[in-house]
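Revision sheet: structure tokens.
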Amino acid sequence: MFSAPSTSERHHQIPFGRCLVIARRSHVTLTDEGHALIDEVLPHHIETEQRVLAALPKERRDDLADTLRALLESLGDTTGPT
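Predicted:
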């Protein structure tokens, strides 16, 4: 069950639906333009993330990863570590 997309979502032509069964979950399908944008910006985002996290010692990065994994699991993520 999904709600109708908002005006701003239609304006950007992003197929989007809010899950009415689980309120915090949304379903998004990227357009070809969306995939191209992700391909363009993701490498820069990953570089920035690596630069920021490099300031922490490995033990602190590991602790942060464990904490974030626990948060995801508490929200229903069952994919496990990658």
